[in-house]
What does this fold into?
Amino acid sequence: MDILTINGSYGEGGGQILRTALSLAVLTARAFRLVNIRAGRRNPGLLPQHLSAVRAAAAISGAHVMGDLLASTDLTFSPGHPAQAGRYVFDVAEAASRGSAGSVTLVLQTLLIPLALANGASSLLLRGGTHVEWSPPFDHLASSYFPALRRTGLYLDTKLTRFGWYPAGGGEIVCEIAGRSAHDAALLTPIEMTTRGPLQRISGRAIAANLPGHIPQRMADRARASLASLDVPLNIEVQLVTAACPGAGIFLLAEYQEWPASFSAYGRLGVPSEAVADRVVANLHEHHASGVAIELHLADQLLLPLAVSAGTSTFTTLRPSGHLMTNAWTIGQFGVADISIAQGPPCRVHIKPLAWR
It folds into this structure.
């Protein structure tokens, strides 16, 4: 089969195009060439987290790779075999040749679906950034993304063993994936996500690493006060942790009857703790007022697993974000699903998998 050429500058033009292409290449045994990688970004080309995802995907599929260098804007990836279950260790610092907060949650999302559909169980140990901006924090995966995947029949267990913040990283995630041997069917189960039910409670945690305790306390206090009007039980814990470098953030979960929604905001030098809490609360309020089932950032992450499921799935989300549209386009390049996105409101996303095996 000819190598599929993909324009990495399409749409929002970020690393998501690369990660989705890697996952689908392994799943479909389709080689691809990605050009103009992250061409419009301040630091174009492959960063450590992207290079780590490439090398991790190559390790599970025996792929032949060209262009797997830092800052490379042209990559060719040719899988040698289907994803092979096993025990793997991947460290973003190895790709960076130094300490790095490159996101391990994004590396995990690259590997998760191929290994979930592989024959046999897999164990992953991932080191790098676990709570860094512009990527899903571990809290989001644990409280929102993984529960959604479990509804499709995917079996996994994860644990955060060490926090990793920007810029030093040094965090650690362990993930156990059951693989196809534990499934009744070869593909994932489609799901309908158009209603969410009433809001039942809000939970979460305000965290500070290597910083004074008043920082997460102020974030938690501000969030509790701002969310009191929703008149549901609130449980926002304050947590002090140690890490390779200082860091702070607040991570909330709106627990609706059907589909939970997670929200996060990170502290920055010079930004008051209250302003950080205001940011995450504003996002939660916007989602709550919309009435949609799926939170904005989860929406684009669900496209890939639903595109390789055993039937048609539908969900509603706030709006067609750049990430959602770009990921839908990338999946379309591999021909595994027809994805239609009605802008709404609400934005309704319809995923119809095609015969691709």
